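Sample entry (152 residues):
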Amino acid sequence: MARPAKSIGVISKNLTKEEIKSREESEEKLKGKKDKLKPLRHLNKRQKQIFKFIIENLEESKILGNLDTFVLNQTAISIERLETLEKQANEDPDLLLTGAFKSARDMYSKDFFRCCNELCLSPQSRAKLSIANINKPPEKKKLDEILGDDDD
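Predicted structure, serialized as tokens:
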């Protein structure tokens, strides 16, 4: 099974400058704007807090766009549900032995890990992001920027 494609911002393999530029432009167009990154109305208070926490902490990476809203919502839901299940298990350890509890926990865990992969939330993904950011060549200044914009 092939591995899922990663954003150009997290790829650490060697690509030509043209390939990198082409992928960056394409991804930027496909990502769309990021002016509507808001939790859906049906999320509860805790889920909305998680949604906003993720956005705040991924803001610097500049990988999020409006199309990520649905993945962010699903991530917030799965995290909140896992928190709820763990809280219930702490209050009643016998729940850990029930099939329904195990099934629900397994389902939300799978959702969570899939969402982490999609949003680059794992330590491995963050390491790849940092490597990609370090290995980026510095942007060249345009002649206009070097000479300044003096009309004197």
